[in-house]
Amino acid sequence: MARPVWSGVITFGLVTVPVRMYAATEDHTTHFHQLQRGTNDRVRNKRVNERTGKSVGFDDIVKGYEIADGEYVTVEREELEEIAPGKSQVIDVSGFVEADEVDPVYYVRSYYLAPGDEKYRKPYELLRAALESSEKTGIATFVMHSKEYLVALRAGENVLALHTLHWADEVRDPEEELSGLPGRQRSDSKELKTARQLIDSMSTTFHPEDYSDSYEDRVRALVEAKAEGEELTPEEGPPEATNVVDLSEALNRSIERARSGKGGGGGRKTGSGRRKPAAGDRTRPAKRRESRSQSGAGASVSKGRTGAFKGRSRPGASQGGTGTSQGRGTGSSKGRAGASKSTPPLRDLSKDELYRRAGDQGVKGRSKMTREQLLEALEAHAGRGSSGKAA
Predict the structure, then answer these.
(1) 32-53 burial by CB neighbour count: b if 16+ within 10 A, else e?
(2) Which residues is 93 bridged to in the sheet?
(3) Contacts of 83 (CB under 8 A, 6+ apart)
(4) In Å, what is the CA distance from 331 to each residue of 231, 265, 292, 318, 334?
(5) Which H, E and C letters describe the chain, residue by residue?
(6) Please, what is the Cα angle at 23 between 142 and 15, to 5 degrees?
(7) What are the pLDDT digits (tens) for 210-236?
(8) In what ranges is there compositional bias, type Low complexity (predicted)?
């Protein structure tokens, strides 16, 4: 069970609702220790007095604000707590706004709010239902850990969600901060119309569970591969920038690719086979995976394994493929009528698939090859095989 990070009350008008606040997200990043190169000795950071070089205990550390060169005003933690009496236990709603009035650039972090006690479920649900039916977002302030926050309070399907926001003076004005921003595009330009067609052809419904952190998967694959003395397929570099002269041609090719089902976004799992949601469906938080280690790594090691861990693949992935068994994309397809049994052309395969084939064919130096080099090596190998049969 999650542990509350804060408890207090929501006040709006003369209504007060006791609540507990829980973090809505968690970090799945692989964390490394620092070691001295060539050893297994840990390297640790210590609090050291800059002048004497001696270690300083946590209880002997105070906050200091520099008012002149080398001159500080010191402030105790208790002093910071004393200047916000009572307010640290109150989420004070000052008004309600349309949800789309809050620019996403202001959002910082998300939390869930739960009733403070069983007897407060009714006023809690009343506030949640009122926010949902009115399609409004509450704007409030509160203090946590000696810091005041501006927050947005909104209704989830069964829960109240709280999002911390940046203050106005924390958000930079792009016109002032960025140089070389282009002027606005003419609405009747041919390229703009083509770009809109591309957006329309790639439009879909957002399901967060359809996406995964492919870099994090590759980090885990790298760790396991090194632990077992295996090789890992290197990633290709980023594509070259589109030549301005070829922009229209690139847009048109992109539309054709999207319509053929070959387009894909970074980190998105292929072949989701998802139904089109009915009207009125609400987006729900994605179910948390049981363990990050059970998902596929999105990278192959030299012995032909798929993913970071032996015998494991992404949830829902078909055995021996990269997609799910039901849908679009590159995976095997139980649900596709008349699925072709023929081998797909090499040029339609991903880099990981090409790498696995190169391993099967015994292509040397494959671990350092780009996708194009793997493709050339496999085509050359196929050519040698064909000429051998002909002879």
Answers:
(1) eeeeeeeeeeeeeeeeeeeeee
(2) 140
(3) none
(4) 24, 16, 22, 7, 10
(5) CCCCCEEEEEEECCEEEEEEEEECCCCCCCCCCCECCCCCCECCCCCECCCCCCECCHHHCCEEEEEECCEEEEECHHHHHHCCCCHHHEEEEEEEEEHHHCCHHHEEEEEEEEECCHHHHHHHHHHHHHHHHHCEEEEEEEEECCEEEEEEEEECCCCEEEEEECCHHHCCCHHHHCCCCCCCCCCCCHHHHHHHHHHHHCCCCCCHHHECCHHHHHHHHHHHHHHCCCCECCCCCCCCCCCHHHHHHHHHHHHHHHHCCCCCCCCECCCCCCCCCCCCCCCCCCCCCCCHHHCCCCCEECCCCECCCCCCCCCCECCCCCCECCCCCCCCCCCCCCCCCCCCCHHHCCHHHHHHHHHHHCCCCHHHCCHHHHHHHHHHHHHHHHHHHHC
(6) 40
(7) 888 888 988 888 888 888 887 777 766
(8) 333-343
Give backbone dihedrals phi and psi of 157, rounded to 5 degrees, phi first: -65, -45
Predicted confidence (pLDDT) per residue in 27-78, tens digit: 899 999 999 999 999 999 889 999 999 999 999 999 999 999 989 999 988 8
> Do 356 and 304 touch, CB atoms closer than 8 A?
yes
Residue 20, strand partner residues: 7, 114
Which residue, chain included where needed, has tokens 């009528």? 337
Q: How far apart are CA 8 and CA 114, in angstroms?
A: 11
pTM more than 0.70: no
* Cα-only R_g, the chain: 28
